[in-house]
UniProtKB/TrEMBL annotation:
This is O-antigen ligase family protein. It comes from the Bacteria. Keywords: Ligase, Membrane, Transmembrane, Transmembrane helix. GO terms for molecular function: ligase activity. The chain crosses the membrane at residues 16-35, 41-67, 79-97, 117-134, 146-167, 200-221, 228-244, 250-271, 278-297, 443-470, 477-496, 502-520. The keyword Ligase applies. The lineage of its organism: Bacteria, Bacillati, Bacillota, Bacilli, Lactobacillales. It comes from Enterococcus lemanii. The keyword Transmembrane applies.
């Protein structure tokens, strides 16, 4: 740093504050904060208030620091003002598009400017944090932060499972047995729903995704550092991801573990930067063996077996045309046979016949009551539900399929081309149903332009990867740099296929730390010579 370059005050203090703020993020995602409506203030939960308060306070600190600089050091680039203007213009257009909707839907699925405004500010937090993390060089404490995250997340999941006090990943009720009961026939008495455990965290999918992107880092540290702590944390990560019981967690561990080993072998061993050691060989043997030994007894495998059995039984039942007397529509108050549905039918004289068809087929298809009666009631759009009920059982029992079909239908009925670019609104989609595929959900919520503005940092990951490739620097990466890139690409893939991954603030804040590190390292990678790295 040159003597003329301005050195902001409290650089070290803010850096440490951000490190601890990052490290203790898992504590802000405990389920207890989301159970009581009395813990919601101004439409925000306590974790959201804390995160928004911290980021808002840091922004205010930066503004005050900027104004207190000598005039010669005040350099406010016009690009920041332009960027702020773009966000304002987007919000105005989004509001106009979302508020002027298909008239009958406005009361049925209302739009709230307050709710969407809060959503936008929350979506900006990870973007702001990326700049703060880069400025204050949080990457200097990257390893310590990774250790802290894994200890709090994986460690607490394993401990609460062993004690039998963990919440179920699917029911939010206490589990009925710990990992040892998996081997003693617990699935003969209980469903995987009561066995899969997520500690005291909120969303199993979100925790699965976070542990998936942390697995490569702890694998790298365990293989490279030759210390007890990272090896213990690696096994905690493995156990916790098998305990969670989601497919993302179960399969991500072994996929990311194997991919990390490939990167270590290529960048550190084949390129002559490291020599293989005995303890690395032992880890390479022991970790897969323990995984293979536990795998057949895991809740996720039990879930796959259970779902296959249910689908097969439903198909057989439909072929026999024997209605299940135990499955009845529960909320008959929502089933008024109105003569003019909100979405018109071609022939009004056929309405009663359509209702009869829906009520006859509904029990056989095992569609969630919530979809048919609350999210998008069948008396609102009976023709749509007839089409859904004509689908195969494998599809109608898939919640994500039904969720997306509902959103597609609402968008089609509204018939506004601008909705593809600016969305229908976060509040309106939540009145329908929050789709369990994050990027697809954001397409309906904020549109293509909104995704680029609020989630563009994830596309930046691919941009950096392509830049490294085309600049011919792919062989000059360090293993941990390649691992960072791989983890973020994997996170995007998981978010495309799963829900509750980047929709809340927990995962995006962790991703912001990884992205900031990757950006921070990018210049070093591009400037790097061809010599071997130590």
């Amino acid at each position: 740093m040159s003597s003329q370059e301005y050195q902001p005050k409290y650089q070290r203090q803010v850096q440490l504050f951000l490190v601890f703020f990052l490290m203790f993020q898992p504590l802000l995602d405990l389920n207890i904060f989301f159970l009581n409506s009395k813990l919601v203030f101004f439409g925000l939960t306590i974790p959201s208030l804390v995160r928004m308060g911290v980021v808002g306070g840091l922004c205010l600190f930066e503004i005050v620091g900027f104004l207190r600089r000598p005039k010669i050091n005040r350099d406010l680039s016009k690009k920041w003002l332009l960027l702020a203007l773009i966000y304002v213009i987007y919000f105005v257009i989004h509001h106009l598009v979302s508020s002027k909707y298909y008239t009958p839907f406005v009361s049925q699925f209302p739009y709230s400017v307050k709710s969407d405004t809060i959503y936008f500010f929350k979506s900006l937090i990870p973007i702001v944090l990326i700049f703060l993390f880069i400025k204050y060089r949080i990457s200097n404490y990257f390893k310590e932060i990774i250790y802290g995250w894994i200890l709090l997340i994986a460690g607490s999941i394993v401990l609460t499972n062993l004690l039998g006090i963990s919440l179920s990943s699917y029911t939010n009720e206490p589990i009925v047995g710990n990992i040892f009961t998996w081997f003693t026939g617990i699935y003969n008495e209980w469903s995987f729903l009561q066995v899969a455990s997520k500690g005291f965290f909120r969303y199993a999918n979100e925790i699965s995704a976070i542990l998936a992107i942390l697995t490569p880092f702890i694998t790298y540290y365990a293989f490279i550092e030759r210390k007890v702590l990272p090896i213990v944390l690696l096994f905690l990560t493995q156990l916790s991801m098998m305990m969670i019981g989601t497919k993302v967690a179960l399969y991500s561990f072994i996929v990311m573990f194997a991919a990390t080993l490939i990167l270590i072998v290529f960048y550190d061993i084949l390129l002559g930067r490291q020599k293989i050691k005995l303890y690395q060989v032992l880890l390479l043997i022991v970790v897969p063996i323990t995984y293979v030994a536990i795998f057949p007894h895991s809740p996720s495998v039990a879930r796959s077996t259970s779902m296959s059995t249910v689908v097969k039984a439903a198909d057989e039942k439909e072929m026999e045309e024997q209605p299940d007397e135990n499955l009845k529509i529960e909320d008959e108050s929502n089933l008024k046979r109105i003569q003019k549905p909100i979405v018109p039918v071609t022939d009004d004289n056929q309405i009663d016949a359509i209702y009869d068809n829906i009520e006859k087929k509904y029990p056989e298809k095992r569609i969630s009551h919530y979809f048919l009666l609350k999210a998008y009631p069948y008396n609102v759009d009976p023709v749509f539900w007839v089409g859904i009920l004509n689908q195969k059982n494998e599809k109608t029992m898939n919640n994500r399929f039904v969720e997306q079909q509902i959103l597609k239908r609402v968008k089609a009925v509204n018939d506004n081309p601008l909705e593809s670019f600016f969305g229908m609104g976060y509040s309106r989609m939540n009145h329908l149903y929050p789709l369990e595929q994050d990027f697809v959900a954001h397409f309906y919520t904020i549109g293509i332009i909104g995704i680029l503005l609020f989630f563009g940092q994830y596309f930046l990951v691919f941009g950096i990867g392509l830049a490294i490739l085309f600049k011919g620097k792919i062989f000059k990466l360090q293993a941990y740099e390649a691992i960072t890139l791989m983890s973020l690409v994997y996170l995007v893939a998981v978010a495309i296929n799963s829900g509750n991954v980047i929709d809340s603030l927990f995962t995006p804040i962790i991703a912001a730390a990884l992205i900031s590190k990757m950006i921070f390292d990018y210049k070093k990678i591009i400037m790097r010579k061809g010599e071997k790295q130590k």
